[in-house]
Amino acid sequence: MSAEEALDRVYAASSDPTTQAELYDDWAASYDHDLEVSGYATPGRIAELLAEHLTDHDAPVLDFGCGSGMSGRALADAGFTTIDGTDLSTGMLEQAEHSGAYRRLWQLTAGQLDVSPGTYRAVVACGVISVGAAPAGTLTLVASAVGPGDMVVVSFNDHTLEDDEYMATLQALLDDGFEQVAAEHGVHIASRDMGSTVFLLRRRD
Ligand SMILES: C[S@@+](CC[C@H](N)C(=O)[O-])C[C@H]1O[C@@H](n2cnc3c(N)ncnc32)[C@H](O)[C@@H]1O
Fold first, then answer.
1. Phi and psi, residue 101, nearest 5°
2. How far is the CA of 202 from the centre of ligand 1 (A)?
3. pLDDT higher than 80, residue 1
4. Which is it for the CA torsion 44, 46, 50, 56, positive or negative?
5. Nearest atom within ligand 1 for CA of residue 42
6. Lower CB density within 10 Å: C or N end of the chain?
7. What is this structure's pTM?
8. Which stretch, 11-20, 97-106, 129-138, has highest mean pLDDT?
9. Which DSSP symbol is given to 109?
10. Could you tell me the residue ranges of all domains in the chain?
11. In a mutational test of the pocket of ligand 1, which residue from 128, 141, 159 has the highest number of ligand atoms less than 8 Å from its CB?
């Protein structure tokens, strides 16, 4: 399967967690190559934005939906030293283990995130919460793991930016407990001419 065929498959997928885990298990071995040749830019953009706003680069950061480790490697390249990762897909987690970017990795059960607020100074979800991937409510789950003063950094691709349910979920966080520190639109996947907005939110004290 070519990189473009793999992306076609992903963008047509349902957000059902079993479907997602199977899809990414199948794709795990060639995911990094396919995304590199497609010009996947969001991991680097997220990591650089977080590095500007979280200047203690030894602070613990959780890479939610870490996949094969591309987002964790980008965080490490931006200077972060204490990165944990979690994902639904066993195949992707095996790749993430090889990336060497993570202190700890574990497998998620969909809809559950057993992390006490305050454990991480930031939780990142890069390319995870979007139409055809994790459902909108996943953003609320991620936010529930973040304590006062700590951050959520999430990317929404262009399809997701036009989806009322995802945007309403984001707005609900802003209406109740979070401030928007930054929102930057840029390249998501160059070969598709697709963009994403990276939102950096902070829980108010
Ligand atoms: C496009 S990949 C992004 C991986 C990595 N963050 C990156 O930027 O390369 C999407 C990841 O989200 C995971 N995923 C899909 N649905 C999920 C859900 N409901 N909860 C958590 N992770 C999910 C998939 O297993 C997959 O590894």
1. -85, -15
2. 22
3. no
4. negative
5. 8
6. C
7. 0.97
8. 97-106
9. P
10. 3-203
11. 128
